[in-house]
Amino acid sequence: MTVTEPTSPLTAPAARGSCPFAPPPAYEKARRESPVTRVSLWDGSQPWLITRHEDVRAVLGDRRFSAESTRPGFPFLSEGRKKLTGGDASFIRMDDPEHARLRRMLTADFMVKKIEAMRPDIQRVADDLLDRMTAAGTSADLVPEFALPLPSLVICRLLGVPYEDHDYFQHRSRVLLHDDSTPDEIRGALDDLVEYLTRLAKDKEREPDDGIISRLLARGELSVKEIAAMGRLLLIAGHETTANMTALSVLALLREPAQLTRLRDDPSLVKGAVEELLRYLTIVHTGLGRVATEDVSVGGHVIRAGEGVLCVLNAANRDEEAFPSGAALDVARDARRHVAFGFGVHQCLGQPLARAELQIALETVVRRLPGLRLAVPFEDVRFRNDMAVYGVHALPVAW
Question: pTM surpassing 0.85?
Fold first, then answer.
């Protein structure tokens, strides 16, 4: 077993390369040559960087690695990220049994059976958005006209949040996810969202509906503040991730016309294509942080108790050992073992909803807009290199 620690650590976050869909070249190189290695962060700490698919699954599936962001040694990519992740921890930053207790309160809302029953409503939302977009002309920015409002409308209905307030919470979501946000800006955005959702929860105590917030209140197990914190997590995750994945997926398909044609000619490929796009794009680029609670061997290295770990999902999802020709997009590939939603007990609770939304969004766009094309040169597309959730700031298209 190798116990000698690597020298000359990498720096995270690493610089991107020429392909905006690919992980930073430094992470790709690390996966090939030193898949378990030290990395240097902004605060001088040097956690372990995990880039190989097998090792990422091993760490995320091992309860000896804690998700609690308040533990000493937990890695943060910036001071602002530390303020966001370590300040008001949600259940995704807790370990069992508390993590399991809180997560179980939401499990029924995101079960596959319930999400499948929502498909007709999601389809209507997608069609209505495209109806309005196409009626207004022959070009548009796909992000605000389709990719963002689709999941936003759906998560608002699930939670019982008025969609007319979407500008308010989307603005604050952008502050929370922007790499350059200061700790004070993040604190302000957090406070605003908690205050908004606390006020909303109190309103629903008087006038309940069938949304998640009302159902959590009816259980009587959580305080209004705890419900507001849970609602904040679901509200941000429920629209930011799927919105960016939708726009980025459309762009990736436009850059690979042969793959787009295969998808258009054979709609039965859509479900598998969504898994492949999740693997190929993997919009969580910051890595999933963990900290070892005891000594653990990973990839031939001993990670000591109290040492932090960053699991780089986008690098793991390009691992040639797990996905041959992983740098290529193949809509017919069986990509179900990807780690775009994480792995283990903390894997994304909302993945059934995200899958349904992505499948419906892509099938609808491909079917209804056969002449879809970029309205600007690819080089002019602005990617979200400055955000915790990757994607594009805008996607001008024509049809």
Answer: yes
